[in-house]
Amino acid sequence: EVQVDELQRLLAGMEKEHRTLLLKMKEGEAELARLRSVEGDKLAQQDRSAQLEKEVAMLREKIHHLDDMLKSQQRKVRQMIEQLQNSKTVIQAKDAMIQELKERVAYLEAENLEMHDRIEHLIEKQVSRGGHSSRARSKSEYVSSKRLTGPKPLPLIRVVET
After folding, report:
1. H/E/C letters for each residue in the chain?
2. For residue range 101-143, what is the model confidence (pLDDT) as tens digits?
3. Burial degree of 49 (CB within 10 A; 0-12, 13-18, 19+)
4. Which residues contact 10 (CB under 8 A, 6 or more apart)?
5. How many CB atoms lie within 10 A of CB 32?
6. Is the Cα dihedral 70, 76, 78, 84 positive or negative?
7. How many whole angstroms separate alpha carbon 26 and alpha carbon 63?
8. Considering the entire predicted model, what is its pTM?
9. What is the pLDDT of residues 60-80, one digit of tens each?
10. Where does this protein have coiled-coil stretches (predicted)?
11. Has residue 20 got a pLDDT over 50?
12. Closest Cα to residue 18, out of 78, 65, 72, 77?
């Protein structure tokens, strides 16, 4: 963005110089026309005319060069803006993908915890049916439970102190 601003500042300066040179060229052409029409010292007028014609030719060349530079800088600015927009689009797409993956991970973690709870519950049932209570947990071991938010309703999650 700094480079774009710098290039735009340079473009503005070149456009100002372009206008100044055009004005000088017009003034030179006007003076040349006036000198050609005025009676007087032909030799002095011819020297001044030759000098003005050289200046006009040089100014035309400078204007042509500036036009080329302006076009080149404008292309560069457009390309840089396009690259910035493309980069922003790519970043937004990757951010969306990251968010989607985070949501999927949260959902899968919730499912995983639910499955662990179900397995523990089944094991506790089997142990209590068999009369063994070595794996059974008391209600005081459960600290809290909460529901995680996500794109789909998530199962109830129980946090167990071990």
Report:
1. CHHHHHHHHHHHHHHHHHHHHHHHHHHHHHHHHHHHHCCCCHHHHHHHHHHHHHHHHHHHHHHHHHHHHHHHHHHHHHHHHHHHHHHHHHHHHHHHHHHHHHHHHHHHHHHHHHHHHHHHHHHHHHHHHHCCCCCCCCHHHEEEEEECCCCCCCCEEEEECC
2. 999 999 999 999 999 999 999 999 998 887 554 444 444 444 4
3. middle
4. 73
5. 19
6. negative
7. 12
8. 0.44
9. 999 999 999 999 999 999 999
10. 4-118
11. yes
12. 65
In one-letter notation, the amino acid at residue 68 is: D
Using the structure block, give the residue that is written with the tokens 């400078």: 62
Supply angle C-alpha 105, 108, 113, rounded to 5.
125
